[in-house]
């Protein structure tokens, strides 16, 4: 699996703005290869619906057939990349690009809200309960400072993943990092 799928075409990014496609891609990345029927059962969707959306993800290069674990009756799909990325400045050059970015950010925020809502402290050890959560900061930074923060966050995360690989208490952890300038107040 490749690390990242760098998208420059708003039409390609639009393919994952569909909520079901985004969820399918997320499941393939997190849980590994699956058939349309297996994914349909996990998501409470028909295999016809999941099959259609998987073909769309395939058409735009997000997933591929898993020939290593082929099911005789049904295609098994796997994610081609761990992450999807895009350059917001480049994508924002068109109205379509700006709309796709807005939809993606709103979907990400909605997904985060769902994750927070589903987290049940009674199901986790005290160490996980103490560690899991969100924090917010207001910092005064120029664009270069925020860019450095994002890059260094990525570096630290990669180093921690490598250092803790194989730990006995390892779990998949969803980590969200974001930064936006605060809305300017209108001057009288």
Report on the structure:
With 188 residues, this protein is mainly alpha-helical. It has helices at residues 10-14, 19-31, 36-43, 47-59, 88-91, 95-118, 126-131, 143-164; strands spanning 2-7, 34-35, 63-65, 76-79, 81-86. The longest helix is centred in the middle third of the chain and has 24 residues, at 95-118. The chain is globular, with a radius of gyration of 19 Å.
Question: Distance between termini?
Answer: 54 Å
Structural class: mainly alpha
Total of helices: 8
Beta strand count:
5
Brief rundown of the structure:
The chain is mostly helical. The chain has 8 helices and 5 strands; from the N terminus they run E-H-H-E-H-H-E-E-E-H-H-H-H.
Quickly list its features.
single chain, 188 residues, mainly alpha, three-stranded antiparallel beta sheet, two-stranded parallel sheet, 8 helices, 11% strand, globular
Topology:
Blueprint: E1 2-7, H1 10-14, H2 19-31, E2 34-35, H3 36-43, H4 47-59, E3 63-65, E4 76-79, E5 81-86, H5 88-91, H6 95-118, H7 126-131, H8 143-164
Helix pairs in contact: 2-4, 3-4
